[in-house]
Structure formats: structure tokens, C-alpha cells
Amino acid sequence: MRKTKAVLYIICLASAVCSFVLLPSLAQSQGGTATLTVGDGSGAPGSQGNQITVSLTNDVSVGGMQLKICDEDDVIVCAGCQAVDRASGFLCDTNEQSDGCCGVLFVDVAGGGLAEGAGPVITVAYNVLTNAPGGECRELSPENIVVRQDNQEKDLVDTLSVSGEFCFSTSTTTTSTPCPSKEIYGENSEETQLLRSIRDNILSQTPEGRKIITLYYQWSPAIVKAMKQDKAFEADMRKMLDGLLMLIP
């Protein structure tokens, strides 16, 4: 349990996470074509875990791809992805980029490749900031797409793309995703509202801050579970948050 708590402390105090770099390729295609389609999504301001589906139609076997999904205004933050359906042997990872786009890395770890076909290959989860424009929609534009027939620096696939759309409902919703501050202070407490204000008005304005937001929501369920199982850990978490709030003018 000590080791688990130590890990959670590090996660809570982290100021940034390592990012992978999406490098545009200058190599020439070696044959094969593909069409990548970003699906539509929706969510209320303040909601978490809203999913979109990314589909791929490919006429050759694919070993991996990387891309950026960009949205105007940057009021949604990617919080992870998962390989689905025919891509079950692949690993998927996301990272909120400094330009506000969501970097996506999709790699074959099983070695079998993605066979020719069509359909969903990954789902991407998004958290919506509370300042999102309710009742409006924003384009989800795929950029810097690189699709490979294998995981090496060769055999690129000519790829077309289709944009999606993310729409924001007109009412703020309360998410069911576990939240440490909500568990400690309460849903509508002054402390929780202040922490949310910091998230939306300060952290969301910088690349480092957006990484902290993503990391926070990825680990919130584990932190809340540990708090419920260990009251001493919950007390330590409260002291840490109390100390943070005392630093705010």
C-alpha cells in the first residue's frame, strides 16, 4: 500500500507529463491507400470521458499510424484512447499538444498488422472545459497523418481524411467520473469551485497545464478508490489540497 500511495502522490504533484513528438514524414508513399475518418462527438461543458470514434478504410495491411486531431478554441482536452474492433492487437496513446491539438499514436504490438478492411480502429476520450460554448459545434480536423504498412520508417500509405465535429450541449452537466476534490470537499463547495476555476482559467491556457488536466482525470478513479480504502491517505490528500488552496490569493 505504501508503494501505491507513493505513486499516487507523485501523480497528484506532477507538473507535466512526457509527450511524444509527432514528426511529419517527408518520405514517399510505397503503395496502398487509406481513408481516415474522424467521427462526431458531443458533451456538456464540464463533462468528461466523451468519446469519438476514428475509422480507417485501408486496402493494404497497416502496422501503425500517427496524427493530430485539432479543434478550434481548444475547449476540449483529450484524455486517452483505446484500440477497438479489428485493431485489438494495437496500442493507442494520446497527448494534448502545445498547439491545442490531440496527438494520437497507434502502433501494432501483436505483430499481425491491421488487415485490409474498413471500420472503427480507435476511440478517443475527451474532457470538455466549463467555458465551452454551449449550443455550438467545432470541427475536429485530422492533420499530419502518417499511416505505415509496418512500424519502420518506410512503406507509407497514401491517406485521405474526413473531419468530424464535436458539439456542446447548452447545459453544464455533472460528470460521474470520480473526482478527489469533490470527494473531499463536496460537489458544490467553495473549494471545489475554486479548483475548477483554476483548471478552466489557468491550467487550460498552457500546454503544461493541459497535460496536468489530462493526467488528473486519467488517475482520478484510482486516487478516489485509494482514498475510500485508506482514510489516512484521504487525510493526506486533503492536507495537500488545503495547502494548495492556501497559496491562492
Question: How would you describe what is shown here?
Answer:
The chain has 249 residues and is of the alpha+beta class. The protein has two domains: 2-15 and 176-246, no CATH class; 29-168, Immunoglobulin-like (Sandwich), CATH 2.60.40.680. Helices cover 28% and strands 35% of the residues. The protein has five helices and eleven strands. The strands form two sheets. The chain has a six-stranded mixed sheet. It has a five-stranded mixed sheet with strand order 5-8-3-1-10. Helix 1 packs antiparallel against helix 4 (207-229) and helix 4 (207-229) packs antiparallel against helix 5 (231-246). It is elongated. Mean pLDDT is 79; it is low at 1-30.
Features of this protein?
5 helices, five-stranded mixed β-sheet, 249 residues, 2 domains, alpha+beta, Immunoglobulin-like, disordered N terminus
Q: Assign the structural class, choosing from mainly alpha, mainly beta, alpha/beta, alpha+beta, or little secondary structure.
A: alpha+beta
User: Overall mean pLDDT score?
Assistant: 79
Spatial strand order of the main sheet: 2-11-9-4-7-6
Biggest sheet features: 6 strands, mixed
Query: Total helix count?
Result: 5
The CATH architecture of the largest domain = Sandwich
End-to-end separation: 35 Å
Query: What is the element string, with H for helices and E for strands?
Result: HEEEEEEEEEEEHHHH
Helix content: 25-40%
Kindly provide the radius of gyration, computed on alpha-carbon positions and rounded to a whole number of angstroms: 20 Å
Instruction: Count the beta strands.
Output: 11
The backbone outline, from C-alpha atoms, is elongated
Q: Which band does the percent of strand residues land in?
A: 35-45%
Here the CATH topology of the largest domain equals: Immunoglobulin-like
| pLDDT < 50 runs, ≥5 residues | 1-30
Estimate nothing, just give the exact number of structural domains. Answer: 2
Q: Which CATH class of the largest domain applies here?
A: Mainly Beta
